[in-house]
Amino acid sequence: MSAAPSTPDRIEPPRGGALQLTGPALTGLVLARGDVDRSAYLRADTDWLAAAWADPATRVVVVEHGQALCALDGGQPHLGFVTPTQAPDGVRFLLGVAADGVVYFGVAGPLPPEPDLGLRPAYLREAGPLLSDRDAGLLTHAVALANWHETFTHCPRCGAETDPINSGHARKCPVDGSEHFPRVDPAMIVLVTDSADRALLARNALWPEHRVSILAGFVEAGESAEQAVAREVGEETGISVSAVTYLGSQPWPMPQSLMLGFRAAADTTDIHVDEDEIAEANWYSRDELAAAIAAEEIRLPPPVSIAHQIISAWYGDDLPGSW
Ligand SMILES: [Zn+2]
Which of 18, 151, 241, 260 is most buried, most CB within 10 Å of its CB? Predict the structure, then answer.
């Protein structure tokens, strides 16, 4: 495969695949991978972008309502790319340039017909854990941008329809000139443990019986993530926490969250669930957790989630998870 037009000289940034995730307990976050350089410095280079789009070696990920074509059912799972000439009309965004020089774009538009090779539409939640670092990173990036372009189409100031700029990484209002950037909602998720190192797991009131996870909630306006941890734990279970420790983060563009993972030490152990958001909550030792899972009394979230990874890190081994 020939390389796309040569990229202008610049200082090489570190590549995403080499990044060490924060926190010794959190490794292998499924959606926090990727080894294609985002190449933000090229997003406004119209000549380079036009040449890259004209290159048949360029690869395009098409995303429609959160789904992309993937081959997941045999052999090495991979994204189903199309060439620029095969790509549908739709908002186009530069995803980046790989170490081998191949340029990757995303397009938010109708999925191409499934030509062959076991390709089928799949959501990030299913495909993310199966794909390579490169493809998982590309799909996470593409889904996040496509979701934003599908939703935030008009100017919040004057209501005019905005236009994509900066190779799809921003939008601009043609009436008042205001610029708008992809929306990301920070949410915290926290494993609370007591002095006996038991873990606090809860069932959201909207979830079916037996499904449990650690506590989570959106960071509110004017609030730090650590403050959100203490507030949400208090509101949902009546427990006060201290010693809030950051573990790591994972994008969760379904549709637009960034999950910030924490540990927190409980100062109290009496649980008073709010009965609005949380239906029930309980403390589990490691042995109690393993027994409850084995007896099918509880089910943990799937490994694609940061919640699963945090719980497994505390447990000291991988655990079955299936929602
Ligand atoms: Zn406007």
Answer: 241
